[in-house]
Design a protein that fits this description.
The protein has 2 domains: 219 residues, P-loop containing nucleotide triphosphate hydrolases (Rossmann fold), CATH 3.40.50.300; 221 residues, no CATH class. Strand 5, helix 5 and strand 6 form a beta-alpha-beta unit. It contains 16 helices and 10 strands. By secondary structure, it is an alpha/beta fold. Helix 3 crosses helix 4.
Length: 490
């Protein structure tokens, strides 16, 4: 996607009635009444949250801006964001005065007469900008706020736009609102001869929304069907790659945290300090994953500011490692250290069943071999000398997996025009129970026994086995993600 400079001011423009050649990029004017979400549509289609300005107030866009969508590296579509039409009823009356029905002018000729009049640079300057841009394009996308009632001003607006002689595709925006009037709009648009309609909520677009939009455009503009098909294919490939990359990012995080081990003396203060360090390392690693996911889907860090857990009342911002946070997501929490100050840490008690005397003898023997001991020998010697190893509890790994998969779902459903923060609390409830109740994926169990797999540790070593485990775990997460989505939909 690339931006196109704003159009020149009306005083520097000349009216253009000839549509660009079919071999050039498809040019579409995004038109409609003020504050219906035209800029929002372009933000979502381009996945660019910084395009234009989106506010819940009328008249935000005052001039024409544009952007290009690429397919296979070449420009496929040019989209132009136009100002809102604010006085269509008065303009239609003015057109009747300029070109009375007795003259029998066709629609484009009537529009041209208006554009040649002084009023196109004065009272109706805003509408003139819209019409000039539509005349230069192959077609128009008419954005409708589906929450609005159908009024006479909308019908007059559509009559004026239709007079340009170019195809119009209505796009119903804000369709997820409880106040939507979709059927009312469909009926009104059909009465005006507009039967090809797309429902596309720019805040929460459907997964296949872009495909439907370009499919309808290809029906209206059959000469551009090949380039629209190429764009659809490119979008599908990008969507698949984003999804694949997202699950790899989550799998990398889970492997890192599952393999993480910290050693500490058995005394309570030292163990508690190690548990605190373990939790902090895990939190920071999760944050890195969240930042990477937001970047991969082209959202800002501010869109997901505090990562709330699905808790109630004063516990809304409760810590990820608090036992209650695990229970409220339906994850069973064991008793013992996980319920106390070391919540979220599991003690690796390797010495169980060995007498103190035998441990002393083994410790002396192992001590003589310290320089030549392998990784397992070093760990064993540490334990014999009174050290314990701590790892992140299985329940916390489950919660991390559930959280990140919920975030992936939210990012897939979110439009780049959305202004509110991302909320995953509802998505963390229900769905498939595999991560809550069944055995952890084999790749995480293998990571438990492979502390050198954790990039958080000083002894990290990349390996083919680790890379294979990440790929397998990413495939498993994708399967669980899809299962949860299907369960929620039913």
């Amino acid at each position: 996607m690339s931006s196109i400079p704003p159009s020149p001011s009306p005083a520097d423009s000349t009216a253009v009635q000839i549509v660009p050649a079919a071999g050039s990029p498809l040019r579409l004017a995004v038109v409609g009444h003020t504050n219906t979400g035209k800029t929002s549509l372009l933000r979502t289609l381009s996945r660019n949250p910084d395009f234009g300005e989106v506010r819940d107030s009328p008249g935000t866009t005052r001039h024409v801006e544009g952007l290009r969508l690429l397919a296979a590296g070449a420009p496929a579509i040019e989209l132009f964001d136009t100002p809102g039409m604010e006085d269509g009823m008065a303009l239609l009356d003015y057109l009747d005065v300029l070109a009375p029905p007795s003259e029998r002018l066709d629609g484009p000729a009537r529009i041209q007469r208006f554009l040649d009049s002084p009023e196109s640079l004065g009272r109706f300057e805003q509408e003139a900008r819209v019409l000039r841009k539509l005349l230069k394009c192959h077609a128009g996308i008419y954005v409708v706020d589906a929450r609005d009632p159908v009024l006479a001003k909308h019908r007059d607006e559509l009559a004026i736009l239709a007079s340009c002689g170019h195809p119009l595709l209505p796009v119903l925006n804000f369709t997820h609102s409880p106040d939507q009037r979709i059927e009312e709009w469909r009926t009104a648009l059909a009465r005006l001869g507009l039967h090809a309609i797309v429902e596309f909520d720019t805040v929460a677009p459907p997964l296949e929304g872009e495909d439907q939009l370009y499919e309808k455009l290809s029906l209206l503009l059959d000469s551009h069907a090949p380039i629209l098909r190429a764009l659809k294919q490119d979008i599908a490939q990008q969507r698949s790659q984003r999804r694949q990359d997202a699950f790899v990012l989550v799998a990398e995080m889970l492997i890192d945290i599952a393999a993480l081990r910290l050693s500490a003396p058995s005394q309570a203060p030292e163990l508690e300090a190690a548990a605190t360090s373990l939790r902090e390392l895990a939190r920071r690693r999760e944050q890195r994953c969240i930042d990477a996911l937001l970047k991969r889907y082209n959202f800002r860090s501010a869109d997901f500011p505090n990562h709330p857990l699905p808790l109630q009342g004063e516990r809304w911002e409760m810590d990820l490692f608090h036992p209650q946070a695990l229970k409220d997501v339906g994850i069973h929490v064991g008793k013992g250290v996980a319920a106390g100050a070391m919540a979220g840490a599991t003690l690796d008690v390797f010495m169980a069943g060995i007498s103190l005397g035998a441990a002393t003898l083994l410790g002396a023997a192992a001590g003589g071999l310290w320089q030549g001991a392998d990784k397992l020998g070093r760990r064993l010697l540490g334990r014999l000398r009174g050290y314990q190893e701590l790892t992140v509890d299985d329940a916390v790994l489950r919660l991390l997996a559930i959280r990140e998969l919920a975030l992936v779902t939210a990012l897939e459903r979110r439009g780049h025009a959305a202004l509110g923060p991302i909320d995953i609390s509802t998505l963390m409830q229900g769905g498939d129970d595999t991560l809550r109740k069944e055995k952890l994926p084999e790749e995480l169990l293998e990571a438990r026994a492979s502390p050198q797999w954790s990039t958080l540790a000083d002894n990290y070593q990349p390996s083919t086995r680790r890379s294979t485990a990440v790929k397998r775990l990413a495939d498993t997460l994708a399967h669980l993600h899809d299962a949860s989505r299907r369960q929620r939909e039913t």
